[in-house]
Design a protein that fits this description.
Layout (H helix, E strand, L loop, with lengths): L8 H7 L2 H4 L9 H9 L6 H5 L5 E4 L14 E15 L6 E8 L4 E7 L4 H4 L5 E11 L2 E5 L2 E5 L14 E4 L8 H15 L9 H6 L5 H9 L4 H32 L9 H8 L8 H14 L6 E6 L5 H14 L3 E5 L3 H14 L10 E4 L5 H13 L4 E4 L13 E6 L7 H8 L6 E6 L5 H7 L4 E5 L9 E6 L4 H13 L3 E5 L14 H10 L7 E4 L5 H12 L5 E4 L12 E7 L6 H8 L9 E6 L5 H12 L3 H12 L10 H4 L10 H17 L9 H10 L1 H8 L2
Parallel strand pairs: 4-6, 9-14, 9-15, 10-12, 10-13, 11-12, 13-14, 16-21, 17-19, 17-20, 18-19, 20-21
Antiparallel strand pairs: 1-8, 2-3, 2-5, 3-4, 5-6, 5-7
Helix pairs in contact: 8-9, 9-24, 9-26, 11-12, 15-26, 21-22
């Protein structure tokens, strides 16, 4: 079955609507300066603006009187600023802005830290709405760092977009306010709603009683009641899931039709590989190796996703596939997202192939930092087949890299690569078997959504003999306790990491920077120990040298930025301190924590945090409650939603502006069922009544569909 989906950029542009082609700059009230601000929100066109949905809603039809607010709960209040003050905190030296708000039934204190501009922004007599968690401090009701909105004098009138209605609360960037955004989107709906085209087939809408797109977009921004808003979101979510699932299923169809390399592998040879290590592989590792073996024997190429928590032993499993290709006299490629990780894989594999069934396998490291002569020599040997396994970064997919007989490909930490990079590596051979690995466990719902075309393997147990990891959150005021804990462990012969979110001190962000704190630690808390600093702006050679010294035990404490997130394996390091932990994503924190707990000693992940938002507090609670990567991933998906779970590398997830697999599994499964029914009845979408669907898939997912046809 052919899938004639190749289209050029000009064809795709011709299929775009006026909403897709109109820059946000030309909307009344925007202009060139605001255009740049909107780009921070991912808004480039008029259509993007209409699809910039609220992150939540406030029911301002009836406000909660201050006298009736409930302590410990998030509440929305409205009143006038009675007084305003600012000061420096005596113990943290932070700037504190404070107001007292009065609504006639009572008063509430609202406090913000390190936002000195609020002193000139919030004035007595102004009317404002505040949303936040209600607490009691010194017998007074208060909110700490609440979201707020100043209201105009006429904001209580019936035509207001900010009062006496269910009010949309949008994601913002500095320079754009809620009131401005509401007014702009309201104007765009009034002027351009008529140009919205309903992409879902009428029969499908009628079957599931789904509203048309115009009404759904309108009600997602300015709903009359919560039920109408939920119905609108359900309809838009169904459409997003439906079309994305069609593209995923088409990719699956294309994979199983290609002619791959059927590897001749015996059970005895695989067992010999499994038994060749000086330690016993886990049951999960053995199971996945058998799954890979079964796939590699087939006529069509393997496309398998391997999920395994940090330190679960995915590299050995991947090496099993490399062994099977080597056994079949073919080549393998192993692509990692960073040079640190690529080098680590290279050295680990070199150590394992000295003896046993892998003896004689020739391995080369291909990264961008190689000298020209060394690189040219490797390229020549790869092209001639003298190299059996190439380990490297994205440098492997460069045009000048050619393989003689590539039959197995490993892509590690795949969410750091785009779909096209995966396709380019696949094009290096004749439809090679592909194993995609991730140490960011992906919940089942997101697997269905994003990886419906892949077979799934899971390593859900860690190797024996590992110590336990305990994760503890500390406030900034208790930082000295954390440093004492580090001193105790290092004095016992262990090593430690201290990680920061930025490199240099910044006036805009009151964060302890790695460079500044490194100098302070050398003079004070850790002056008795051997310290080193590592960050992303250092030269590659410096980074490599420091990491080697740390691995050899020549450095006691490594102060670093998130360059450590992936690819560091030092079993003797058993303490991970993360400063300003609330600034890190949940997946990032879990990856950082995975750098410890690799030896026999118990380990400690110590988080110094000052969570001022519900999301930040939720992340801290989740990371401290479990070390199970799959539970962490589910929490992360629920907190952030799918669009931010992987970032912009995953083209398809950018289409999920509303749909959330974590909370809408019923809609996802319904949409997938309909997508399967459509593609089974018309695999190439060639029937006349499916032409519109076909064109939409081409337009929305050109990268995915080029990947379908790759090879």
């Amino acid at each position: 079955m052919a899938l004639p989906f190749f289209v050029g950029d000009s064809t795709i542009k011709a299929m775009q609507s006026s909403l897709e082609q109109t820059s946000v700059q030309y909307i009344k009230g925007v202009g060139p300066a605001k255009k740049k601000l909107f780009e921070n929100l991912g808004v480039f066109t008029l259509e993007d603006l209409l699809y910039l949905f609220p992150r939540r809603y406030e029911d301002r039809r009836v406000m909660t009187p201050i006298a009736q607010t409930k302590v410990g709960e998030n509440q929305t209040i409205c009143g006038k600023i009675l007084k305003q003050s600012s000061r420096k905190s005596w113990h943290t030296k932070k700037h504190v802005s404070e107001i007292t708000i009065d609504d006639g039934t009572g008063r509430m204190s609202c406090t913000w830290f390190n936002q000195p501009y609020l002193t000139s922004y919030l004035k007595p007599g102004q009317k404002m709405v505040c949303y936040g968690k209600v607490d009691v401090y010194k017998n007074r009701l208060q909110m700490v760092s609440p979201e707020f909105e100043l209201l105009d004098k006429d904001e209580s009138e019936k035509n207001s977009l900010s009062m006496n209605r269910i009010v949309p609360i949008y994601p913002l960037t500095r320079g754009i306010t809620q009131r401005y955004l509401r007014k702009l989107i309201r104007g765009c709906l009034d002027n351009y709603k008529k140009d919205l085209k309903d992409e879902l087939p009428v029969a499908l809408r009628n079957k599931h009683r789904l509203a048309n797109i115009k009404r759904s977009i309108e009600n997602s921004h300015f709903p009359e009641d919560p039920k109408i808003q939920e119905e609108a979101m359900r309809r838009i979510s169904f459409e997003e899931f439906y079309f994305f699932q069609i593209s995923i299923i088409l990719r699956r169809f294309s994979t199983i039709q290609k002619q791959g390399v059927p590897h001749k592998i015996t059970d005895a040879s695989v067992l010999k590989f499994i038994d060749s290590f000086p330690f016993e592989l886990t049951k999960a590792q053995k199971k996945v190796i058998r799954e890979i073996k079964a796939d590699m024997k087939k006529e069509h190429p393997m496309l398998r996703l391997l999920q395994g928590d940090v330190a679960s032993g995915k590299t050995i499993v991947a090496l099993g596939g490399c062994f099977m290709a080597f056994h079949h006299k073919c080549q393998s490629a192993f692509m990692a997202p960073t040079e640190i990780l690529a080098r680590q894989h290279f050295h680990t594999i070199k150590k394992w192939i000295k003896e046993g069934p892998l003896k004689g396998m020739k391995v080369a490291l291909l990264v961008s930092g190689l000298k020209k002569k060394e690189r040219d020599d490797i390229l020549l040997k790869v092209a001639s087949g003298d190299i059996d396994l190439v380990v490297g970064t994205h440098a492997i997919v460069n045009e000048e890299v050619t393989f003689k007989s590539l039959s197995f490909v490993v892509i590690d930490e795949q969410h750091k690569f785009g779909v096209r990079q995966r396709a380019l590596l696949g094009e290096k051979g004749t439809n090679p078997d592909v194993l995609i690995m991730t140490a960011t466990p992906i919940p089942r719902t997101l697997c269905i959504t994003l990886y419906g075309d892949l077979d799934l393997s899971i390593i859900n147990e860690l190797p024996k003999g590992r110590g336990k990891i305990k994760t503890i959150e500390y406030s900034e005021e208790r930082a000295l306790e954390v440093y004492t804990k580090v001193q105790e462990n290092v004095s016992e012969g262990r090593q430690a990491y201290i990680v920061y979110p930025i490199i240099e001190e910044s006036e805009k962000l009151d964060l302890k920077a790695a460079q500044e704190m490194f100098k302070a630690f050398q003079k004070n808390e850790f002056k008795k120990f051997r310290l080193a600093l590592i960050h992303g702006q250092m030269k590659r050679s410096e980074t490599q040298e420091i990491m080697e010294r740390f691995k050899k035990g020549e450095i006691d404490i490594l102060v670093a930025t998130t360059v450590l997130e992936v690819g560091v394996d030092v079993p003797n390091a058993n303490v991970m301190v993360v400063e300003h932990a609330e600034r890190f994503g949940l997946a990032q924190l879990h990856q950082l924590r995975g750098r410890i707990g690799r030896g026999k000693h118990d380990s400690f992940c110590l988080l110094i945090a000052n969570s001022q938002t519900d999301e930040g507090a939720a992340r801290m609670q989740a990371i401290c409650s479990t070390t199970d990567g799959f539970k962490i991933a589910q929490h992360d998906l629920e907190i952030r939603g799918p669009g931010r779970f992987f970032g912009r590398h995953q083209h398809g997830l950018n289409e999920l502006k509303v749909a959330n697999p974590a909370t809408q599994l019923d809609i996802l499964e319904l949409a997938r069922k309909e997508a399967i029914a459509l593609t089974r009845s018309d695999p190439s979408l060639e029937k006349s009544n499916n032409q519109d669907v076909r064109l939409l898939i081409v337009k929305r997912y050109p990268t995915y569909l080029n990947f379908v046809n790759a090879g």
